[in-house]
Amino acid sequence: MDDLLLLAQKACDAAVKAGAEFVDVSAYRGRSLSVALEKCAVKSCDAHWNAGVSVRAFVRGARGWASASGLDETEALNAARNATKLATVAEPDPDFASLPEKAAYPTVEGLYDSRLAELEADELVQWAGGNIDAAREVDPEVLVSGAVRTGWSEGALANNLGVEAASHMTYVNMYVMALVKHGDDVGSYFDYDVGRVLDDFDPAGLGAKAAQEARRFLGARKIETSHMPVVLGPLAAHSTLGMVCWSANAEEVQRNRSWLAGKKGRQVASELLTLVDDPLIPQGCNSSAFDGEGFPRKPLTVVENGVLMSWLHDSYTANKANEPNTGHSTRGGIRPTNVNPKLGDLTAEQIIRDTKEGLYVPSGSLSANEVSGDVSSSVDFGFKIENGAIAYPVKNTMIAGNMLEFLRNLDAISSDYREEPGTVMPTIRIQNVRVAGGK
Amino acid sequence: MRDMLEALRDKAQQIGVDFMDVRAVEDEGTSVQLQDGKADKVSQYRQRGLGVRVLLNRAWGFASTDGYDRERAFDCLETAVAMAKASQERIGDQGVVAEAAPVEDTVLAVFEKDPRSISLDEKMKLLTQYEQAAVAAGQGKLVNTRIYYGDSVERVALCNTRGTFLDMESVRTNLGAYMAARDGEVRQKGGEHRAEQCGYELIDRLTPDDVSVKAAKRAVSLLDARRAPAGKFTVVFHPSITGLLTHEALGHNAEADLVLTGQSILDGKLGTRIAADCITIIDDGTIPGSWGSFPYDSEGTPSQRHVLIENGVLKGLMHSLETAAQMDVAPNGSARAQGYANRPIVRMSNTFIEAGAMGFEELIKDVDQGVYLTAGQWGYVFCERGQYTCSAGEGYMIRNGQLEEHLRDVCISGMTLETLMNADAVSNAFEMKMAGMCGKFGQGMHVSGGGPHVRVRDVVVGGQE
Predict the structure, then answer these.
(1) Same domain for B353 and B405
(2) Dmax over Cα atoms in chain B, in whole Å?
(3) How confident is the model at residue B97 (pLDDT cuts 50, 70, 90)?
(4) Would the CB atoms of A46 and B460 count as touching at under 8 Å?
(5) Are residues B172 and B286 in the same domain?
(6) For chain B, how far is it from start to end, CA to CA, in angstroms?
(7) What domain range is B301 assigned to?
(8) What is the pLDDT of residue A183?
């Protein structure tokens, strides 16, 4: 790790010497292992090493960026000089004020587990094999595909204002897709598990669960076009609510291309909705002590009782808006970390029971036009709800509306949830959604 | 470089592998972004590394590393062998590789103006010109302008135990414009891009009208457009979305690896009718300069023109060396890998529907109530169920054979086999401008698509009205 920081500092010095007014350098290396699954078998085991350096240099606010693979010092210093040269040629940006200054970082536990860093491919193959066997016990004809992946990485970040930040992390994840066929009738579904440490990873049961769920999608029907409530299961709700935080990206807002632009301090959603972005959750999948520019992380309430409270900033957008930096830089963009909603009172089961006719969507995103907020999405996996119960799977069905309408029509958030490290994912319900059907 | 790759190959043969290939990839590029009047972000990248793939005792292993360091390259081979041994625990179908004659070739990129020889100043001036033209066309309603220029040069060396050694270079240039417009509370966007495998001469062939002005006009005109309708309609697809439809609805399903693993709805349908008579679908990696073309695929098989559907009948699939051997057919050059850190998998190249004889007016004249979709944006498919989604940047209502109200962006959803059978007319116009990136198994790949206008009955339109 020390060698990465030393290399980053040397590259910073080279950029300053070449004329950069501000510069930051990231140096990183890592290794990953993956096992690809196809047709209930291992297709291939793969191992990867990667390392590199990237340099951002600023001259009169203009940004030059240069990157090189590997950790060769000559290449790193060349990248630093190149980035500076590019910044000199680019047009000045008076809105750029400064990079972050040196700061103390919070402690976030559980982002690295040496047991994961030392895993061998055959252990991944064992996990994969166990899940294939379990899926076959559910349905001997099931076709399982997917992947198991693990890896470690370490990185160092330095800038010319004294920021020196270093991190190392591990991860593990498994994704299983199960496919069952009865003649031309096909049902498919997936499940996954993720973790930053081995104790958070429990892959047993993924294959069986995916196979059981896949069978539920057999016999899918087309439905009529109409308006109805849509109940979003944990994964679909998580991606939909996460989109609110993605759209609260200050760069998108300042550039006038977010549907949330101009709405800070205003009621944008039902009072039920409170969203907190918390990067400091121990073992969280998106947790870290500092952001991409080396600014300390801290929790941020983005929506409180339906009111949009804050933008997600990096140093550039914060300085431009004269607001506090929220530490959401990816060093090239802005993104949320662990997004968690405040839980409601009813269970998911009660919400469905309380829905006379509607649609249940367990997973998939209601992808919105990022500028207008208009939504036009296919229901990749969905069930018709009739008389308060899940009735049958649907196909060739779409959902449409606008994110602001959806958020205002949000009338239930469940008390129970799916949990993955750093994130709780409840079920939610949106009233009066336009549903287009193929019937 | 060649010495090292051949030494790796020799070492693999000593180990006794069934097959081994190594790809060394070096890639560099420049991009400039002009936003709201300032070209204030300029970037350059350079990366190189190699990936070694091994078939040992009929099991696959792969390892990759950044850089061309000799010691690490040999470590990679050793690791790939260890990976293949780990795979053996749970392999299903035995790994196989089709017989193919070894090839030795050097293919340099064809271009008129090396983009690396053009100064940044000139590239920045170009973007300024495109932006000013967009602003002039924006009727004062543009609230954000972004113009993006990028070029890249990639060099790939491929060596395998069959005696193949290839040295291939490709040069890519692209230009895009993305605009946001606002009128009160209504915000809309428009985007256009052009991308080809060529040098800076791409810029000489374009004008702002083709790219930034088009994007600006779309963003502004959408401010007054209506929300699209919801339900089942006869839909007429513009060539830009015909390309997406072809790629998503049919193309992925015709990738032989998905057919062999039971993940395609085309399993068992070769030689049978799966589409209307008017539908002929081609995947062609040999089109000069097209974004999805290549001289040899990532396994060293020359690229080809594949007839996937001919007059409605499924004629062929796209193959790698492995899927060709499994299905006992000749490899046809469709195995492609992103960069050095990925294994080759079966991919499309430039995929399109062949044009017919009908004019556009004739195509819409019998449509009482339908939707005309243009400005294809993106799509995806669940192959195993044949359910696909395509996104259009704008559209028009068709009423009594005429284009009527302008419609906002909207997605459509369809079932592949129904859509192919419900296509009942294709126009005589043909465009192939859908250059983009296709994602599969975590790898992004350059592809293109296009075709004529296509009319399809009973498509689900996911509008808000």
Answers:
(1) yes
(2) 73
(3) very high
(4) no
(5) no
(6) 61
(7) 230-462
(8) 87
